[in-house]
Amino acid sequence: MSNQSVQTVSTSNDKIKVVLAIIVAVVGVIGFYYLSDKPALVRAGALVAGLAFAVLILWTSSTGREFLNFAKEAVRETKKVVWPTRREASQITGIVFAFVLVMAVFLWGTDKTLEFLLYDVILGIRK
Question: Could you tell me which InterPro entries the record lists for this protein (predicted)?
C-alpha cells in the first residue's frame, strides 16, 4: 500500500466564493476611503464589516477554510517565538553596526588600492 495524499480539487463554486470574498474585502477598503468625510468610527465600521463579511464568505469554501486554517496555524506558531531580551537585541545590533563599519572600511580601502593600481601604476594617467 502506498501512502499518497489525496488532494481535493476545488469546484468552480468555490472559486466564485473566493473571488466574491476578495471583491467584498476590496469594497470594504474602498468604503473606508470613500467615507473620508465621515467620523472615524463609521469608516472603521465599513472596513471591519467588509473584511468580516469576506471572511464569512471564505469560510463557506473549501479553499477559504484551508487558507483560514493556515492563517490560524501561522498565528499559533508566531506565539511560540522566543523574542530576545532588550540587552540581547542591543548586543546583536551593536555587532551588526560594527560589522557594517568594518566592511565599509575594507571596501573603501580595496577601492582606493585598485584605483591607485589602475590609474597611477598601470595607466599612469593621474596628474
Answer: SecE_bac, SecE_sf, Translocase_SecE/Sec61-g
Q: What angle do CA 81, 77, 94 make, to 5 degrees?
A: 25
- Is the pTM here over 0.85, yes or no? no
Nearest to 54 by CA among 82, 78, 34, 30: 30
Q: Which residue has the cell 466564493?
A: 17
Q: Is residue 2 part of a domain?
A: no
Which domain range does residue 21 map to? Answer: 12-79
Residue 1 in any domain: the answer is no
Binned at pLDDT 50, 70 and 90, residue 103 comes out as very high
Same domain, 73 and 29: yes
Q: Is residue 3 part of a domain?
A: no
